[in-house]
Amino acid sequence: MNKTLIVATSEFSTLVRTKAFVLTLILMPVLMAASIGLSRAARDATDTNTRRFAYIDRSGVIAPALEAAAAARNADANESGQPRYEPVAVDPAGKSDDQLKLELSDRVRSKEIYAFVEIPAGIVDPDQPEEVRYYSNAPSYQALPQWLRTTIGAVVISHRFQAASVDPRIVERLTRPTPVNTLGLLRRDASGEVKPPEKVDQ
Question: Which of 139, 115, 142 is nearest to 44 (CA)?
């Protein structure tokens, strides 16, 4: 019995000194985190449940564009396998800030809505920018807040350009990114002819 224990202890001591064992211990948390991240990403990519969210537009200028962007996105959401986004306007009149947000939080908890968004009054002011606040009890789902970030950001920039008498179409044209294509190498075939490179898919 003692000999067996001694042999087992010796083999274990030898094992824990190997680089493979140490690397496994170090990489295991990383691999687990990556696995969880991929699982969440796959779930988000295949989740087609409608996302009904409320929004409070204190600026008075974001709502029309937000509604139009959602309608345009929903037009082909089913064909592209994406969830529909249904914005619901909320009138804050007659309620305190905390009372209104508490009521909306309860609506999220009861699954009446998926989330709610608070758009501040001074969002288009470039000198005193304010943040948009997105409230949800599903923080791992990033598709909706990312869409809101992109959509609201585009509207804000457009309003700022208009206020500064700058045509956003000119800015878009002048700041259009220059593409960089990845190609293979040129080669010469058996006949001596130079063959052009092939474009590499990315």
Answer: 142
